[in-house]
Design a protein that fits this description.
Blueprint: H1 2-32, H2 35-67, H3 75-80, H4 85-131, H5 146-151
Length: about 160
């Protein structure tokens, strides 16, 4: 049973490392502003996240089955109390590795989130530049010509579309 937990934790670590690779690729794609590649990567990432969910559910079932005979303690406490030193060391190293990978993935996701927010702000700024009304007159106009300019005070695109 404990060997199954180790195998499941190893699989979780492998999936998380793949997600880290995707996060690195996503960072490059966001910097280059390549939307088509981003869409493909997000689809691949979604499949991997579904797989991660299935493996994590399997891990939960295994841990629950292991802890049924040891009520009132957490899995970490159970691992610390294992008499088999080799299995204890293997489980502890898997748990530590998984935690480290999760921290790294969270950091990369925060960077990508900021890059994505910057890209969205840039797009919004460009939309505002194109659709806002230009109030400045860069050329001399007669005060009598103001009547004509009030009727054509819309921006480059009609924003009421």
């Amino acid at each position: 049973m404990l060997q199954s937990v180790v195998a499941t934790l190893d699989e979780l670590i492998m999936i998380q490392k793949q997600l880290i690779d995707f996060a690195d690729q996503k960072r490059t794609i966001l910097i280059e502003r390549n939307i088509n590649e981003l869409n493909l990567l997000v689809k691949q990432e979604a499949k991997l996240i579904k797989q991660l969910g299935r493996v994590d559910q399997q891990r939960e079932r295994l841990v629950y089955a292991v802890l049924e005979n040891h009520p009132g303690i957490s899995f970490s406490q159970f691992v610390d109390q294992l008499p088999d030193e080799e299995m204890r060391h293997e489980l502890q190293s898997c748990i530590t590795a998984l935690q480290a990978v999760l921290v790294e993935l969270q950091a990369k996701n925060r960077v990508n989130e900021r890059l994505l927010q910057d890209a969205m702000n840039f797009v919004q700024h460009m939309i505002d530049q194109v659709t806002t009304v230009k109030n400045q007159n860069f050329n001399y106009r007669s005060p009598l010509a103001q009547q004509k300019t009030q009727t054509s005070s819309r921006g480059f695109f009609d924003t009421k579309a």
